[in-house]
Amino acid sequence: EKERFDIVLSDIRMPGMSGVEMFEEIRNRHPELPVVLMTAFTAEENVSEAVETGVFTVLTKPFNMDAAVTILMRALRLPVIVVVDDVESVATTAVAALEQMNLRAIACTDPAEALQLVKDGKVDVCVTDLVMPAMDGLTLIERALAFDEKITIIVFSGAPEADTLMRQAASKGVFHCLRKPLDPRTLASTISKARATTAGRRN
Question: Which residues contact 18 (CB under 8 A, 6 or more apart)?
């Protein structure tokens, strides 16, 4: 209340007010202020609660300090999540669910538009369908990584050939593969885990 800050890094488990409760207070007063939480207790209920209320990510203690600084610098950019699907209702429904969790997200039905956002440096997470008429998801992955090798890519599909496509996507370095229909909580949790890595990519 007395000072201006660019970012907040806070433990979750603390006496009195928890980190999640503090985050909710911060969000009410300064909704644009990015908050990164940390905990040694990844199984506790507060972690899921934090993810579902819009915290940028949750770091697991102990963590590498250089990696944590990289994550904090990423959060400072106030990046957005782009959800790409040629079926507008799929993209907009996913974005609406993410925004309900206070996550910044944009829906795109045109892969070229999504790639432009990546090229402009506005996106840190790209969630894309693998089967689209204008540009398939595998091509989108290759082009997005060419623009930004550190971008997190999460793919999804409900196509009959989904297993084959997901294996191909995994070989290109996507962070995770999901099935349609997208479950908002699973998607938010996957995004949070991806953001907790320095590159958002599979090892």
Answer: 12, 46
